[in-house]
Amino acid sequence: MNTIPILIVGGFASDPQLYRPLQTYLAEVSGRPVFITPINRFDWAWVAITDSYAELLRKLDRTVNDLLAQTGSARLTLVAHSAGGVLARIFLGDQPYRGRVYNGHQRVDMLITLGTPQRAEREGRIGGLNQIRWAEARYPGAYWPDVHYVSVIGRSIFGDPNGPPPERGAYQSYRLISGEGAQWGDGVVPLDHGLLPGSLQIVIPGLRHDPRPDRLWYGSSPATVAVWWQAAAAYAATHAGAIGYNQHSDVALQRLSANR
């Protein structure tokens, strides 16, 4: 049994309890202990005020150190959702962010991002654009050779300014991140911007960005989690070079639908 712990890093405006089902499913599929970073919606609200991830980084750093001491492991795996993936990429870095360096790459063996905007075409406080651009400018692509990078993105909503609400919302979000709204993505992050160059890239049809009871998302069920986790684990185990991976299997889709 692999005892390297897994730490979930939540997305913007989320609370830890939102990821309890993902924690359960990921523990079942991976056979590893799984934890959740105690970052809550009030921490994220402070980000909206300060346009800074400094406090989030300090909390993530403390959590990582506590888990490594608790488990006796030298490294852990980060599974980061949405803006949590941007936070994780900054945490891995060796350059000062607001006066502090974290060097998380020395304590992380693999980073899996779920619906994370990996780059943005313009700056701005809205949508965390400044943080996305900061991370990508300093640590482009799968930057650290001692970290296995995996980027997962759903392909479920095509942005349309004249379509029903999900398509209109997707259009605005895609346009904010990439400058173009009429494209595929997970309803929040456009497809191409959710894939990190040099990483294992996993595109899963039908997955939406946020956890909702009426839709498939990255952590909907053990079967959903298994699609990306098993590919990521095999990738890390082989120590292979960066490859592209697109999960378009009808069988996989049937399994996901059956486990909604």
Descriptive report:
It is a single chain. The protein has 260 residues and is α/β, with parallel strands linked by helices. 38% of the residues lie in helices and 16% in strands. The chain is built from eight helices and nine strands. The chain has a seven-stranded parallel beta sheet, sandwiched between helices. Strands 6-7 form a two-stranded antiparallel sheet. α1 (20-30) packs across α7 (222-238), α3 packs across α4 (83-91) and α4 (83-91) runs parallel beside α5. The model is unreliable at 240-260 (pLDDT under 50).
List the main descriptive attributes of the protein structure presented here.
260 residues, disordered C terminus, seven-stranded parallel β-sheet, alpha/beta
Q: How are the SSEs placed, and which strands pair?
A:
Layout: E1 6-9, H1 20-30, E2 34-36, H2 41-50, H3 54-71, E3 76-81, H4 83-91, E4 108-114, H5 129-138, E5 148-155, E6 157-158, H6 165-178, E7 184-185, E8 200-205, H7 222-238, E9 244-246, H8 250-258
Parallel strand pairs: 1-2, 1-3, 3-4, 4-5, 5-8, 8-9
Antiparallel strand pairs: 6-7
Helix pairs in contact: 1-7, 3-4, 4-5
What's the helical proportion of residues? 25-40%
Reading the helices and strands in chain order gives: EHEHHEHEHEEHEEHEH
Assembly of the depicted chains: single chain
- Any idea what the shape is? globular
Task: Give the number of helices.
Answer: 8
What average pLDDT do the residues reach?
92
Which regions contain 5 or more consecutive residues with pLDDT less than 50?
240-260
What percent of residues are in strands?
A: 15-25%
User: The biggest beta sheet, please?
Assistant: 7 strands, parallel
Strand order of the largest sheet: 2-1-3-4-5-8-9
Would you count the extended β strands for me? Answer: 9
Report the radius of gyration as a whole number of Å. Answer: 17 Å
Helix and strand content put the structural class at: alpha/beta
Give the distance, in angstroms, between the N- and C-terminal Cα atoms.
Answer: 28 Å
